[in-house]
Amino acid sequence: MTTLRAITGTRDILPEEVSAWHRIEAVARTLFARYGYREIRTPVFEMTELFARGIGAETDIVAKEMYTFDDRDGASITLRPEATAGIVRSVIERNLMNTDPALKVYAVGPMFRRERPQKGRYRQFHQVDVEAFGLSHPSIDVEVIEMALAYLEACGLARFELVLNSVGDAKCRPAYVEALRTELRRSAPKLCADCQRRIETNPLRVLDCKVPEDQAIIEGLPRISDHLCTECRDHFAEVRRELEMLGIAYRLSHRLVRGLDYYTRTTFEVVSGELGSQNSVLGGGRYDGLVKDLGGPDLTGIGFALGMERLVMLLPGADEPRRCDVFVAALVPAALDRALLLQRDLRRAGFSVLMDSEGRSFKSQMKRADKLGARFVAMLGEDEMARGVWTLRDMRGSSQEQVRDEALAAHLRERLNG
Ligand code: ATP
Ligand code: MG
Question: Which end of the chain is more exposed for a tag (fewer CB within 10 A), N or C?
Fold first, then answer.
């Protein structure tokens, strides 16, 4: 028989590593709530058309990375490669703006992209995703960025860099893209095959190219900062002013265009040198045209998505061992029922309790308790049963005492808290 294996590019998050995940999820919930965000959970699959229209047919995600298949009735379905499109679909379909004109939501969950798997790059990975709708003032851009950084800090990430750019809007970007295309056509033969194709399909993506031979040419290309319209320029100036006012350091990069078509104005990314080539921890920006493009009202939007695998990789590993307050040891078969009752009652009282119900020897039960890191062992043998007590062993000091059945829970609480 062949061994069954996980699908290439997917990974199991094992019990030993899950505590870091719990931590970053808990931090998201408490921190985002302070900024007025509530959680939204949308399906992991949607109609393919949503992503094609939302993300853009010429982006790498849609052109190369989506898990798309025909459903049994012939409908084309895609596993979500990112969260924004599904959330926007929900906002429109469920009229979420009617109840809350300044809608702030976040989502946590798996995304799917068929990329070449490598360290920090998987085919199923997880994102924390944040979206704010209906707010257009630059101070909301700054708030979103500030919250992203506060989140990283609260998770325990010490070193990272914020990279910032403005990609203009529907008014000024087309002229820039044309200027870029004209310039690129001139140097086309010297560019990599991907970039040659992008000249016609999506010239902005050339700025994202990492092929070493292309870099000198790319550095000499026209810059978006010289093509922004007055509104975009003012917006960006105010974003920068407020970031500086709040003491938030950033590096400007005219090449930060992001991989999705829907971005307008502010784009940002947080990178960490410690991640190697997959150095982006989170990325986001404004997408003022997206809700309308997908058939909704003319509503602004801004958000970011953070890669949870990459964040976990960067955090100091502090895995909590399994907690075991009490190990219940039935030393004779007749003690089993009383042991089961005690186990249930102590669990109801809030203790973490384990026992051996396989009828093993005293010695092997003590070994097991030790291995589990049990703080106390409650033992019940013939003698204890006759007298209505438990022998309670403190595994730290190895001292023993006898405690009456009905006093055990209160006694344990006192000992564990004391
Ligand atoms: P990259 O340049 O690394 O491919 P991206 O621009 O495709 O990133 P986004 O689509 O903006 O990334 O997603 C936001 C974040 O999600 C990234 O910063 C990264 O941390 C994480 N991420 C993206 N793709 C993957 C993947 N295949 N595996 C693990 N994490 C990922
Ligand atoms: Mg990518």
Answer: N
| Torsions phi, psi for 213 (to 5 deg) | -65, -20
Determine the pLDDT at residue 369: 95
pTM score, whole prediction: 0.92
DSSP 3-state assignment of 168?
A: coil
Which of 66, 82, 268, 280 gets mutated to test ligand 1 (max ligand atoms within 8 A of its CB)?
280
Phi (first) and psi of residue 39, to 5 degrees = -80, 145
Residues 301, 141: Cα–Cα separation, whole Å: 10
- Token couple for 150: 């506060």
d(CA 315, CA 58) in angstroms, rounded, equals: 35
Q: What is the pLDDT of residue 117?
A: 95
The Cα 143–Cα 34 span in angstroms is 12
- Sign of the Cα torsion 201, 206, 208, 209 reads positive
Distance CA 248, CA 242 (A): 9
**60 C-alpha vs ligand 2 centroid, how far in Å?**
7
| pLDDT of 316 | 83
Count CB neighbours of 399 within 10 A.
Answer: 9
- Please give the torsion angle defined by the CA atoms of residues 112, 115, 121 and 123, in that order, rounded to the nearest 10 degrees: 30
- Three-state secondary structure call for residue 305: strand
Q: Which two tokens stand for residue 394?
A: 């403190």
User: What is the C-alpha separation between 16 and 385, in angstroms, rounded?
Assistant: 38
Specify burial of residue 273 (Cβ count, 10 A radius: 0-12, 13-18, 19+).
exposed
Distance (Å) from CA 113 to ligand 2 centroid: 8
Task: Determine the pLDDT at residue 136.
Answer: 95
Report the distance separating Cα 189 and Cα 109, nearest Å. 42
